[in-house]
From TrEMBL:
Residues 617-854 form the ABC transporter domain. PROSITE patterns: ABC_TRANSPORTER_1, ABC_TRANSPORTER_2. This is ABC transporter domain-containing protein. It is found in: Membrane. The chain crosses the membrane at residues 35-53, 345-368, 388-416, 428-450, 457-478, 484-506, 530-552. It comes from Microthlaspi erraticum. InterPro entries: AAA+_ATPase, ABC2_TM, ABC_transporter-like_ATP-bd, ABC_transporter-like_CS, ABCA, P-loop_NTPase. The keyword Membrane applies.
Length: 939
């Protein structure tokens, strides 16, 4: 197997991860196709909604110019005003718009001002006039010169309608006409004339119930109306404050008494005199309707200006002077069609869902790596944080950009104005900035979750909640001009709302552009829209989320302190201090009872004192204490472990479950931070240099950490590149690894790992840990789940690999430990009880034979007497259902004497089975573990 040329560079690691991601993406191509088809389906759905809306509303007969058939089959039609109803006339070509008399907006009869206690003005009529519908239309005056104001009030309203002139407009122009009907967005058809309500002639004095019929316009915009006289009441107020207060209390939505007292208009003449005409006009704007943030309904204020201007002229030059306001008319127009773009109006909801759909996809991918420990296993094999962040971010950004481009292409191709009218570069910039924010948020939020299912549920709640709350809450507040803009900005700090806010701006520009036949939002409109604030919010949150995500990742995955960024990068790691027996308390006595463990500690002290790098792994007084929870005391998992493992040695760790072996391995691989003490791996401290340690380390975890869709070969190619293998060396190393673990032949190497059996996955995990000849390898029960033949083969592979590698191996198989390990350490309750090679341990703890005999129950006493005769100091180890096991000290017995005694016993009672065996490693393990646990409990 080729030897790597040192630690892999940044570019090599990035290349390895990129290739792995692209391969993984290739395996999931149909998932990507389904993902990209979602925006296509939603765009098609929007288009279908728009087509149905066009058919049933925009293009309905009621919403287009009227037509008449000119043949029996109605193949040919002629269209125009003469064939249209009043509602259809709006859409016809109008080369000569109709002339409508100017109207003054007046309150409805039941809303006109009357005397109330809250107003305090007794010159208003009693509220009994409301029952008869005879309340006057009130107009207020104020100013600096009351005598001049009184003159103007007398000139403001003319006498009753007179004359039978055929020119009805000239007659009406000399009178003050009013209507209680709101205006429309144009004057092609005045609702005040087209409605069934009467037009009021506002006069100084009316004859009771006087009405005068008139006809307006030409067919089809010809209306028969009646003028109903209503009295105009001009009242003087001393100050503008009084006027303002009276109007405020009579506001159309009701005063403190629950009554509506509307004033038609009010004039503040200010400093007007014969040489200066200066006036302020109050008019009622509550009839104006808004669409978005722009007023679209006309306000009837022109007649108010004309009235006071005429009154001033007559004050200067007498009643014969008049500035005639004859009519109001729109500009000529061509035939139009109703173009309500419903797809653009509901687009923000749909496209919020489409873009946010990437959030659960990216988040689940990151949480999956965390849940399956794939991120940490890549890190353990040498993948640095820098390459991981750069490639992962670029990978998700590329997918997001392609997704967004697909959305824009789909939407434009099927004709959605939301995309076609708004500037493409502006749209792309907005989407690009937001997907960057979204990716940063995914990295940040992934630190909170450890399960894919939980993160997916929460992410989809965010997707649908953002769209629905944006539609029913944020959009409502944006359209309400009374809501301060600062509150909208506060809401848009939530990323889903900032996305909806930007999409809403695009929708409004597209809707108005389609309505007017113009473009949507362009860059020139950018500074005049809310997009400026949204862009700033997205950019700032993007950088903050990215920095926070990277910081949290450094603290959580690398085990760094919360203030790691404040440390001096040039400061050298302090030398390790020698462990002192005084600070270890009762450990002095323990080590005196275990000379091999004491000798190992002294060896570690010597290596550290000499700063020797001859040993690949050196642990000094390594300790791990888990804090107490739920009222339980702290748990001491590792008790001051000192160990030195040279290169070329396989050190086996034996111990019962819960002894602390996994805690030790996790500290050495960077998953846990030591409570005290430390470890050196090839001279690098695991507390500060774990990133450098990873470059020369291989790990075979207890549970197989594999990508289900990648093949065995692709796994080894990826990890081989992380170990700096390239070109032919990489291919050769991968093939040799596959052959060594019997995964090369029969197409197994190119099958997805998800289809492997448990034993095949285990062999692949071992091959991954050994590829690239790492200098240090940790194996946690590597042969678990293998059949005997595969186990023997795997042992051979590990034994061959240890020639230039230091291996620490945990196992429960005594046979595996004897075959592979040069030295063994038995771990009990967090501490080493003994260290040595298998022969030494059996010789040290195995100075006895194990005698087993099975008889009937009534002969058990005879067996015990037999053993007492052979070995007076024998110890019973086991007793159940007639089977007894004894430990016989070797210095007390001879094997021939045991055989003779058994033959003699057979003549006295029935012996079903018996056996004499030398001490095995398993016996040593049981003896040491039992003794160690009892001693630790006593201590």
């Amino acid at each position: 197997m080729a030897d790597p040329g040192g630690a892999a560079s940044f570019s090599t690691q990035a290349n390895a991860l990129l290739r792995k991601n692209l391969t993984y993406q290739k395996r999931n191509v149909w998932s990507n196709v389904r993902l990209i088809m979602i925006p296509f389906y939603l765009c098609v759905l929007l288009m279908v909604i728009q087509v149905l809306f066009d058919k049933n509303f925009n293009n309905s007969v009621e919403n287009q110019c009227g037509c008449q058939c000119i043949d029996t089959q109605c193949l040919n039609k002629t269209c125009g005003l003469e064939f249209s109803s009043p509602g259809q006339a709006f859409f016809c070509a109008i080369p000569s718009p109709p002339q409508w008399p100017p109207l003054l907006q007046v309150p409805r009869p039941e809303s006109r001002a009357v005397s109330t206690s809250s107003l305090g003005n007794r010159d208003l009529p009693d509220d009994s006039c409301r029952r008869t519908g005879s309340c006057p239309v009130t107009i207020l005056f104020t100013g600096n010169n009351q005598s001049l104001g009184t003159s103007l009030t007398e000139n403001l309203l003319t006498s009753s309608v007179t004359g039978n002139s055929s020119d009805i407009l000239s007659i009406l122009a000399n009178n003050v006409l009013g209507t209680a009907v709101e205006a429309d967005i144009t004057n092609y058809l005045d609702p005040g004339i087209a409605s069934d309500l009467p037009i009021y002639s506002i006069q100084p004095r009316c004859i009771s119930n006087a009405t005068i019929p008139f006809s307006f316009g030409e067919k089809p915009l010809e209306f028969k109306k009646e003028l109903r006289c209503v009295e105009g009441l001009n009242l003087w107020r001393n100050t503008s404050v009084e006027v303002n207060d009276e109007i405020f209390k009579g506001y159309r939505r009701g005063n403190s008494e629950g009554k509506v007292n509307e004033i038609a208009a009010a004039y503040d003449l200010l400093n007007t005199d014969r040489n200066n005409f200066n006036v302020h006009i109050w008019y009622n704007s509550t009839y104006r309707e808004d669409l978005g943030d722009r007023p679209v309904t006309l306000v009837r204020v022109a007649r108010s200006v004309n009235l006071v201007s005429n009154a001033y002229l007559q004050f200067l030059h007498g009643p014969g002077t008049r500035m005639l306001f004859e009519y109001i008319k729109e500009m000529p127009k061509q035939e139009t069609r109703l173009r309500l773009d419903i797809a653009s109006l509901i687009g923000p909801l749909f496209f919020t869902w489409v873009i946010l759909l990437l959030f659960p996809v990216i988040l689940s991918s990151l949480v999956y790596e965390k849940q399956e420990h794939l991120r940490i296993i890549m890190k353990m094999h040498g993948l640095g944080d820098g390459p991981y962040w750069m490639i992962s971010y670029a990978y998700f950004l590329t997918i997001s950009v392609l997704y967004i481009i697909s959305l824009m292409v789909f939407g434009s191709a099927i004709g959605l104005n939301f995309f076609r009218l708004n500037d493409y570069s502006l749209q792309f910039t907005f989407y690009f900035l937001y997907v960057n924010l979204q990716i940063s948020l995914c990295f940040l939020v992934s630190s909170v979750f450890s399960k894919v299912k939980t993160s997916t549920v929460v992410a989809y709640i965010d997707v649908f909640g953002s769209g629905l709350l944006g539609l029913f809450l944020l959009q409502f507040l944006i359209r309400d001009s009374s809501v301060p803009r600062v509150w909208i900005i506060v809401m848009e700090l939530f990323p889903g709302f900032s996305l909806y806010g930007g999409l809403y701006e695009f929708s409004q520009f597209a809707f108005r552009g389609n309505m007017r036949g113009t473009d949507g939002m362009k860059w020139k409109d950018f500074s005049d829209s809310a997009m400026v604030e949204i862009f700033i919010i997205i950019i700032v949150e993007w950088f903050l989320a990215l920095i926070a995500a990277y910081y949290i990742d450094k603290v959580s995955s690398s085990g760094k302190s919360l203030l790691f960024f404040l440390k001096n990068p040039f400061k050298k790691t302090p030398s390790l201090r020698r462990p002192s027996l005084q600070r270890q308390g009762s450990k002095v006595f323990v080590e005196m009872e275990k000379p091999d463990v004491t000798q190992e500690s002294e060896k570690v002290e010597q290596l550290i004192r000499e700063q020797s790098t001859s040993h690949a792994i050196v642990c000094e007084n390594l300790k791990k204490v888990y804090p107490g929870r739920d009222g339980n005391p702290p748990k001491l998992a590792v008790r001051g472990l000192s160990l030195a493992v040279p290169s070329g040695e396989c050190f086996g760790m034996l111990g019962p479950n819960g002894a602390g072996k996994s805690s030790f391995i996790n500290m050495m691989t960077g998953l846990l931070k030591p409570t005290s003490g430390t470890g050196l791996v090839r001279g690098l401290d695991i507390r500060d240099d774990m990133d450098r340690v990873y470059t020369s380390m291989g790990v075979c975890p207890q549970h197989d950490l594999l990508w289900e869709t990648l093949t065995g070969r692709e796994h080894l190619l990826f990890y081989g590149r992380l170990k700096n293998l390239k070109g032919s060396d990489l291919k050769q190393a991968v093939e040799e690894s596959l052959k060594s673990v019997n995964l090369f032949h029969g197409g197994v190497a190119d099958k997805p790992a998800g289809k492997y059996s448990g034993g095949m996955k285990r062999r692949l995990s071992v091959a991954i840990s050994l590829i690239g000849n790492p200098k240090v390898v940790y194996m946690d029960e590597p042969s678990t789940g293998l059949d005997p033949a595969s186990r023997k083969n795997l042992w051979t592979v590990i034994k061959r690999a240890k020639q230039h590698t230091a291996i620490i191996l945990t196992t429960h198989s005594m046979e595996e430990a004897e075959f592979l390990c040069d030295r063994l350490g038995i771990f009990v309750d967090g501490g080493l009880q003994c260290i040595g090679n298998p022969k030494e341990l059996k010789g040290r703890y195995g100075g006895s034979y194990v005698f087993t005999m099975t008889t009937s129950s009534e002969n058990e006493r005879n067996v015990e007497k037999l053993i007492q005769d052979v070995s007076p100091n024998a110890k019973k180890l086991y007793h159940i259902a007639g089977t007894q096991k004894f430990e016989l000290r070797k210095e007390e017995v001879r094997i021939s004497e045991v055989f003779q005694a058994v033959e003699k016993a057979k003549s006295n009672f029935t012996v079903f089975a018996w056996g004499l065996a030398d001490t095995t490693l398993e016996d040593v393990f049981i003896k040491v573990a039992t003794t160690g646990q009892a001693f630790n409990v006593f201590a």
